Give the backbone structure.
Amino acid sequence: MTTAKEKRYRLSLSWEHEKEEEWLNARSAEGLHFKKLSLVKYTFDRDPSVRYTYRLDYQGGFGKTMSKEEYIELYRDAGWEYVSSYGAMWHYFRRPYEEGEEAQLLYTDSESLAGLYKRVQAMIAVMFFMNLFFMVFNTIRGGVLGYSLLVLYVFLFAVLGTGYFRLGKKIKRISK
Amino acid sequence: MEKGKDMLPLTEAFYYILVALYVEPSHGYGIMQEAERMSGGRVKIGAGTLYTALNTLLGRGVIDNYPVPEGTDSRRKMYAITDEGRAVVRAEISRLEELLKSGKQALSIGEERGT
């Protein structure tokens, strides 16, 4: 039996990964099981006979103490099947859906959940300053093109700033 | 002995990871099961929590990589507690004993006074 591939489009924001999880889990309940993401294009396998719980994890990088293989192996041991990665930093995992399993989380205490949010926040901060640097570079010449770029950058900074701020609020809410 | 004191108090996850490794070297899944067993099913350490905790503990030198026995899956890493880690566990246990003692004393005084 061949599984049919289907596509869906969604703009997902790094600081709302729980919403993305909810969305993927709702799709899986309908028989569409997430396989991979490229930018805004989600590819699914259709199979009405199964249902999964999806979770996202963010890891800044591997190599220092653990390789990606060891990371995936640890999650597999804990019952999580590795699905795919996005941008080398977001990793998608799933496990067969079980009734009343809201507690099937990757992060089971507020300290480690805050740690996850802080890692995402740090990535947003890096993107912010990298783009600030590019902006200065690209708009320094002025002119019409320079000014329209400036408008785009202001928008980008507003989005990144919002993300940073939202994550800060989440961290504050779960920290004692 | 003083080293690692700044890690206190430990979160429940950190505490159970170190206590489990105090007994014997183990891999990630073994630590999860041991924590759940010791806590009577109360403490379930999620994969993300465990992974980030292991990285932190490795970075702090309180645990170390342990050679994987021949013939087992080499991707499944094993961990062992270090002397520093043992000192952290002991310091945490004395801290907890003090808390427990103070609390119990307060309770018994309160009961004597009938409040």
Observations:
- Chain A touches chain B at residues 57, 65-66, 69-71, 73-75, 77-80, 93, 103, 105-109, 111-112, 115-116 (CB under 8 Å).
- Chain A has four helices and six strands.
- Helices of chain A lie at 17-29, 68-77, 110-139, 143-174.
